[in-house]
Amino acid sequence: MSLSFVNLFYLASAVLFITGIKGLTRPRTAVRGNLLAAIGMLVAVVVTLLNQSILSYGWIVAGVIVGGAVGVLLATRIQMTAMPQMVALLNGFGGGASLAVAMASFLTASGPIAAAGTISLLAIGLTVLIGAVTLTGSAVAFSKLQELLPGKPMGFKGITLFNAALLSGAVVIVATLASGGGGLGLLLLLTAIALVLGVTLVIPIGGADMPVVIALLNSYSGIAAAAAGFIMGNTVLIVSGALVGASGLILTRIMCVAMNRSLAGVLFGSLSEEGGEAMDADEVYAGKVKSSSAEEVSMLLETAQRVVIVPGFGLAMAQAQHAVRDLADTLERRGVEVIYGLHPVAGRMPGHMNVLLAEAEVDYDKMQPMEQVNPSFAQTDVVIVIGANDVTNPMAREDKGSPIYGMPILDVDQARTVVVVKRSLSPGFAGLPNPLFAKDNTLMLFGDGKQAILDLTGALNEAA
Fold this sequence. Notes:
The protein is α/β, with parallel strands linked by helices. It is 60% helix and 7% strand.
């Protein structure tokens, strides 16, 4: 296939990628957008495989078989609750693949590298740096989400300066490689530094920031892929990597705003702290928590005119999205207005709750973002919070000593009555007690999220 036809098909792939991403910006067009982007990737892969520069298909076929088998296994076995972990893992795979391409290209030193010289050497250095950071950083994020490592911030005193020193050293090595100095030993040193940097960048970041970390690592994997595209002289890889990198950075910015965190603070794992002492659980809950039952809550719902359902990771853990949809349907048949209040970082990855509710075929128009639903809580009769802890925690407004102070939250405590469905008073991923549970207008409905909602729906139907 001639180079002109290859570039033409690559251009078509790029247009499909951009059109697909545009479709992903709206729930109603997301499925079509995903399909268009997938078609674009199929075109790019097929054209690349038909390119005459490919000498042997043996390893490619083997990779397709093994990778396809692993992909099918992951797609069929991974639960929605583990989706954040899988996204983190896939980010790491992307970074690792780019790292492998850069190392192989440096060792062979042929093709586009020999022709481009400084530019390709710079691309190799950047790909190794970003790919290695993405690989180990994603592994740490996966371990925290999978609870193989503690979700709380970890590290040692001076870790921010240590990270800055590692990054500075890595930049110097990349510049040296680009100028033609050094060899394989220097490249291996860069790889080792970057692998350590990936760990030390993510280890100090607490569980509450994991949605930001996932978005950022996704961006890293795209940037690494784009740099690998320069190494290989592959236009479509440059374009697709740049799109992933840019969209990941935009999403990271959105997440930082939602968490009231600076990007620098997330990058170096520094929690913004101000004066004041954080409250402990005994001080927050002692003698103030009121337990309730499904029957008592159903009596509140019988007289309600407006109900807001606030989902969190507890809903995902309990796989309660379909039960919640049934409860909403039951309330709506009684003439109750039901909407869903969604925090942008509820769950453990961006858009986690939107995906769960869409799976239960909840109407997109009923999913209201935080900035839209917050002003209406004061006119809401009952708010049902299902496993959403940190994103409803008043500490973010009231306790300057709290690590989440200043983070925008769902102001559910302003509703007339708040019903919190939770197994226990255990803290959320940020490890903090929640004063919401002890407020005068809050009732706790303890139990498994799915069963509690089923019991509540059953009690409403019996009262009808």
